[in-house]
Amino acid sequence: MKFCANLSFMFTEASSMLERYALAKEAGFKAVESGFPWGLTVEQVKDAKEKAGVEQVLINLKTGDVTKGELGVTAVPGKENEFKENFAATVNYAKALNARKIHIMAGKLQNATSQNWETYENNLKYAAGVLKNENLLGVIEPINQYSVPNYFLSDFNKALDIIKRINSPNLKLMLDVFHLQQICGDISHSIANFMPYVGHVQIAQVPNRNEPDTAGEINYKYVLEQIETNGYTDWIGLEYKPLKSSKDGLVWVNNYGYSL
């Protein structure tokens, strides 16, 4: 098992994303993932990453101000050019940071129509072509409606159908077990069924999104074994909100028999 710190959720005791790179390294991480670094230049983020000496595994699509609920326009008709501009900016950051994966966020919509689904799929087809040329991997993530009401993509089967239709090795599924449990449950069978299409995994306890060993619905010692048994050997993002200190909360890693 290889674990990377999600800098949008962990080490928030440091207000700056740049400082979180150093804190992640100090805690023992070899790699990180993050949301799009709003307000920071490519050079600033690259410098912080390289000074910390960590690998950047994944970066989220430039979506707008996430604090205002702006989570992308990938499924919004008429905003295809905005999507392409945001995607190009994200690719630029990913290449500078040597991040191989981009999380292509769908956006929030009320009363989605067939036109939204058509736009979403067409934009993903476009993205898959760019990703192929750049030797990058795009992942799409179903997000549960409790955490993000009106998020467009909240169905694993629909996500899988789109991935199969586009049929590109550069577009895969983000399997976040936190969302999987709240959308469809049946974790063991779901992991087995979805794993051939998975490009990235994330974890957090349900329902409070804390460390895997905190009280909640998921037995992560078992789930992590299932992920490994089903052939996943890539990075697992720790996209959880630490109960107290990010570093102190990492005791579960050793307790489960793993290391950073």
From TrEMBL:
Stated name of the protein: Putative hydroxypyruvate isomerase
Active site positions, chain numbering: E141 (proton donor/acceptor), E239 (proton donor/acceptor)
Class in the EC hierarchy, top level: isomerase
Residue ranges constituting the Xylose isomerase-like TIM barrel domain according to the UniProt record: 22-253
Family: Belongs to the hyi family.
Annotated organism of origin: Spodoptera litura
Catalytic reactions on record: 3-hydroxypyruvate = 2-hydroxy-3-oxopropanoate
Gene3D superfamilies referenced in this protein's UniProt entry, alphabetically: Divalent-metal-dependent TIM barrel enzymes
Role, per record: Catalyzes the reversible isomerization between hydroxypyruvate and 2-hydroxy-3-oxopropanoate (also termed tartronate semialdehyde).
One GO BP annotation of this record: glyoxylate metabolic process
